Amino acid sequence: MAIAPNQSTGRRFWSKNVGGKHLLVAETVPSDQSGKTATQTITLSLFDSRSAAVAVASKTFTWAESALPEVTLQERPSLLIILKGRKSVAQLPFTIPKRSMLKLPEGTRFKAPVSVKSSFTSGDSRPKAGQSLSFIALTVLEEPTSDQKWEKLIDACNQNRDPTVFNFSVSVPKEDQLALIKIVVDRFIKTKNKDALHVFLTLIEQRIVTTSAFGDILSYLIEKDLYKLLIAFIRSKSTVVVDEAFVHVLKYAIGLKQDQTEEVFFGLVSKGFTASFLRKHFAELLTAAEAVKVLNLGVDVLDAKASNDVVCERIIELLLSLIDSNCDKLIWEDDAYAALKRAKDYVQSMADMTSAFTRLLSKNKALSQLPDLGAGAETDYVIQKVAFTKTTESF
């Protein structure tokens, strides 16, 4: 297909039909420095076969050689433009998404298909764009009520794929991530089956849903009162709970059943937090009555998880942050005195047991190293029997 002369701003040196509907053109860009530098400026333009007036998309880049490259188009397993010179090789991927027209890579949202070799002697292989989980998820976003596309998404999630940087995908904007999660949540509410829960977790584990949307997802799950999805989100190793959402989730948890409250609290503490930031959120979001509930909850979980040193240390740090931030509220609450005394007595007993255990270890170590030690290990001196050699001096 010919291109109108007034549309060519440089010298065209390569063209190729793509799918019978588009034409891909490579041309050099005129430059005042032409002939003075060892590089070429090349523009790849994409035209619709129905109209050559305006390019659908274009990409301009600098070729690091004075000679023009040899250009080839690889159509399978994915569309890829390959430019080869004497010393340089460039690869430019592009795709034909169903939601929009053919595009060249123009931004950071597009990820190139990375060539993979299964052995030193095998050829390059690239995953097809239509097989990526992100691509299948976007098709569900197009038709949320389509059972066929939903089943296809379930099948893709059931393949147990490990997260990998080699997947060919289009990163999903935050707005689309939230819309996709809402579709999955609606399916979970309607069906109450494990498929929707599995899809929910897989989208997170495969990084289709990113950390930028985690706070909004937690707020949405709390709004819908979905404990199962919330605890699954918290337990997932691929998620984080930001400090801004931590107190919101904790405030929601203290209104659940006792066992559910403890599960959410333990999951939150296991995720970790920043104590200095929590003080501010505790002061702003928790009432005195809610602070008392969190105090009692913390002591209960301390007692149940006493063997977990990391969790116990974090719970104590959380309780101290809570008391520091709400002390002005707690002094006016009668119920707060009992909760504060209970927390203080429990922490004090843990400190006493730790101190006693430390002394026991010290004494055991000293006795094992010095069997004839006469004084106690807690003293600052030792009594030890010493044998002297008897000698006779002649005068």
TrEMBL record:
Protein name, entry field: Mic1 domain-containing protein
The cross-references to Pfam families, in alphabetical order and at most eight, read: DUF7951 (PF25824)
InterPro entries documented for this protein: DUF7951 (IPR057711)
Would you say which domain of life the source belongs to? Eukaryota
